[in-house]
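Can't paste images in this forum, so I'm doing it all in text. The chain is below; anyone willing to post the predicted structure tokens underneath?
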Amino acid sequence: MSHHRKHLLSGTGLQARHIARRLLVGLFSLFILLPLAVHADNIVLGVTKGDVQILSAGSARPVLAGKGDFLRSGDRVYTGANGWTVLLVPDGSRVVLTANSEFMVRSHDATKRSGTFSLLTGMLRAMISPTPKSRANYRFNSPTAVAGVRGTDFSMIHRGQANVFFGNSGKVEVQGINTAARPLTAATVVQTTRGALPTQPIRVEPASALAEAQALLNAVTDTAPESWVEAGKLPEIVARWNISYSRYLADAGRPEEALHVLQVALDLTDAVDIQADARLERGAVLSRDPTRAGAALEEYAAVLNSDFSGPQREIALYMTGMGHYQLKQSAAAQARLKQYLRDFPAGRYRERVETLLRTFEKTSD
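Text version of the structure:
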């Protein structure tokens, strides 16, 4: 073989090896970058503390989750009694889940900045990036409410069938199931339960119980607390405030709104004293309308038929007797009022009850 031919073959071999090497580097880079390109469209778990688990779509059992895990459409996140995690959305938005929450990614499209997420129970805070290039179009649902979100910062509590939304900045459109929307803006609260039309926005007044609840919710979504005891009281704080607020609504001639916020209170917490207080207030609102006296009696009966033995029981028994009297059901009224004297011989309504019973006696004579 001539020297010239050997040189050509040698050069060709070197060139082939160089091309092969470039192809291998390219394939290797593609292999490395392809998962990153796919994952760039996924929601990623950021800081994770305590008991946090992911149930992937199609899986039968959840697995322990940690920082860097990905969420795709259909996946669920569960936080235990001490669980806390931040979900990082590709557009820079963040969703923080607190303890005892269940969250589902129903759909997500990173390129369109759209998605539907469900809070099935618990509390969250959503901080949606207000990127000027493209507006976000996210929906945060519970089984009984829908929140349409663009660029905003808001918090959400979902317990039982009740929903409470706190606005920190921006605007959220809150709906029940197939209802009109109510605007949630900074320093306001919107509530709904059982799919009903949400309340009108309620102003969060400084130093109020609502302001306390909002500050606490923001604090535990900024940083995971050492203890969840105080945060666990949030539904009760809101429920107690609702009971007080219902009196204002009733006095302002807005009975349906009063009944709604009281139903939210009932659905937010199982605390027996709050349940009893809310039932009494609902009875008081209903009894203002003579045509709804029967519905008022049902609220009082819910207290009397429970195992609750607090002071609300005395009020419920007295109001039951008065409700039957209002309905001109003399026998039932006398039976309940006599029961009141037996159960509460030194009760606060004793003199009124004795006077009314004497009236019944004179009428029967």
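Residues 3-39 form the longest helix (37 residues). Residues 58 and 354 are 67 Å apart (CA to CA).
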